[in-house]
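Need residues for this backbone.
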């Protein structure tokens, strides 16, 4: 199905994190598609082997637009959200900014 990468960064372990959106429901991601497009974040090792892949979202359209790392190596994801449901628990109308802080080891939200 459809996945699109919008951002890519290299991590201290020489691996990579990339993000964007997906419409997939094919078990490539932990967290099946929640509705429309979902925010996706994928961590690889230095050879490009997938370590984990996560989908975050609700029944609306969500996507990741940028990535960064904090001082502790956690992944910071900025994106947008269009509907308050699922992983997105509040919406202030239209498209809202959505920022996630993720554990680099497994993609869990912090």
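Answer:
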């Amino acid at each position: 199905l459809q996945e699109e990468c919008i951002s890519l960064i290299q991590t201290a372990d020489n691996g990579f994190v990339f993000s964007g959106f997906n419409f997939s429901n094919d078990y490539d991601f932990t967290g099946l598609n929640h509705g429309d497009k979902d925010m996706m974040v994928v961590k690889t090792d230095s050879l490009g082997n997938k370590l984990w892949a996560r989908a975050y979202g609700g029944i609306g359209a969500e996507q990741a637009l940028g990535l960064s790392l904090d001082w502790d190596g956690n992944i910071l994801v900025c994106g947008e959200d269009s509907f308050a449901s699922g992983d997105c628990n509040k919406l202030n109308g239209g498209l809202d900014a959505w920022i996630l802080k993720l554990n680099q080891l497994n993609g869990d939200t912090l």
